Amino acid sequence: MVNAAIAVENLVKKFEDVTAVNNVSFQIEKGEIFGLLGPNGAGKTTAVNILCGLLKPTSGYATINGYDVQKEGEKIKKLIGVCPQENAVYPYLTGIENVELFGDLYALGTEDLIKRSSVLLEKLGLSNDARRKVEKYSGGMKRRLSLVMALIHDPQIVFLDEPTVGMDPQSRRAIWDFMKDLKKEGKTVFLTTHYMEEAEVLCDQVGIIDQGRLIILDTPENLVLKNSVENLEEVFIKLTGRKIREEI
Amino acid sequence: MILQRVKALTKKEVKKTVRDPAVLFMIFLFPVVFVLTFGASFGGLGGSQPVYAVGVVNLDEAVPPSWASVFLETLSNTTILHVQLYVNNQTAQSDLSQGNIQAVIIIPSTFSQSLTSYHTAPNDPSDWINATVSLYLDKGSVVATQALPPIIQNVLDTFVDQNHNTVPTPIRMQIASLIEVKQLSAFEFMAPGMFTFASIFLIMMVAQSFTQDRENGMLKRIRVTPTTSTEFMASQIVSYMLIALIQAVLVFAAVHLIGFKPQVSVPAYFTAFAFVLIFSLSNVGFGLITATVSKTSSAATGISFLFVLPQLFLGTFVGSSLSPVTQLACKFVPSYYVTDALMSLFLRGATITTPTILLDLFAVSSSCLLILAFGIVLYAKYFKL
What we know:
The structure holds 2 protein chains of 2 kinds. Chain A has helices at residues 44-51, 73-79, 95-105, 110-123, 139-151, 169-184, 196-202, 220-226, 232-240; strands spanning 6-15, 18-28, 33-37, 59-64, 67-68, 80-83, 157-161, 188-193, 205-210, 213-218. Chain A is of the alpha/beta class. The radius of gyration of chain A is 18 Å and the shape is globular. Chain B is α/β, with parallel strands linked by helices. Helices cover 64% and strands 7% of the residues of chain B. Chain B has a 5-stranded mixed β-sheet with strand order 2-1-3-4-5, with helices on both faces. In chain B, strand 4, helix 6 and strand 5 (171-173) form a beta-alpha-beta unit. Chain B is elongated and about 85 Å long. Chain B starts with a helix and ends with a helix.
């Protein structure tokens, strides 16, 4: 557990009478892409918020690179990059200004900031629009910009909360390629999604969460194999008796 | 505290203010447009001096030439007042009620006697005979209720005591003010309050900014960076102080254009701007309190008026015609002390060392810091910074 990038033990989060995360435990190795799958309201974002230090767990224990999320938040903040579910960008700033702002919040040097922002914007196809105000961006462009903002400080561990939701297939593919590159760079990626094909393509390990409970945890291949089904969607149906989502 | 973060967040906040048309209008254009239109309406534009028709009923029992006749002459010599004499209060009140005149001054029967007693023994109040000059105002005229009491009070003060000593005199007026400048337009009396007026709307901007950033997930996003709450709050305070300063400069330019050109020293201007900057702290505080209780930015807009309106009506240029009870209530809003200080600096020629200014400075600083601290604590309790 000490060498794990992320380790979670018996994590519980209750909001009054609702248990959003119910006794969840898992471990993610360094350099791994971990997918937390589940329908809307399953508890995925709550789990991410606890790991990022935005929420205190009701009980249980979680570490990031061995640091306790409740006690060593300041150390963890320097290690992680978080791309939230919503398009959290400043619409009145340009793309580059948003990126530079977050670079400054991580206290990057000017040279590093220029170099890194230029590489990331290029990789995510935003170079030509970097000097336009974000309010003029499409939804997909905002998602990609949000990703650049999360990665500007070159974090070791990246939390991506539904990074491709609402994206057109082409943009989604571009994000998938980008995530594969992150893995090649040795980064640990914690991905939440309700797109089963996304998890199948990208993840080394998948956890399926429903109503706050982690109902299964394995590699995508093993999940399909052990349940004698065709894909992860069918795994979910078999385990819960429901579809993970309505039509995309 | 890493200054790079504070600077980046401050830059962001200022860019937001400049680039968002709604914010830009509310913070900068609205006060300037207001000053210009208000100034034009209240005699500040075009250089012509307004003239107010004032009725005087002289009940003084002394035989002319008396103190009362000299007072009448002083009133008549004031170019801002057009004095009409009435033989009795009834006729004067009739003209007042018909809007023919804007005020009635009643010189009491003991007026000359009182002044004689005062000049015989100026340092011995026990020998004085007190007298009260009554002032009736046309309550339907904003101009009359705003501008006339201080003008007439000023004429009376000057008449009774040429040296404007702070010692009391036996002559009282029922509506009192202490403005010492002669021949001012209504606009000039109100100009100091305009600075306060403009700054008050920062409350709405701060509340909207915090709720919007909360709604679109930006506050949460900033919280997962190493930015500390101290750095974040420092950036907000610096941003809004900077915005308040720009705002004050623009309002000053607008009132100057209209004709408000106080003959005061440079340190007086610096002191005035310092007051506006300190005042902006309370606006950040009130903005945070509003943001705490508002679920959405549109709710914040509405709720912010709970703080904007009392500050506006009790602490700016509209406060001079309020009832005694309301005037007491004015003492509980920071804007009152800012306007009072600016009035003293610009119209009374006060300096930073004048006791009134020091008292106002103490009241503004302590109240603004308290409100800011309360706002930060309240916001941090419900929404982590």
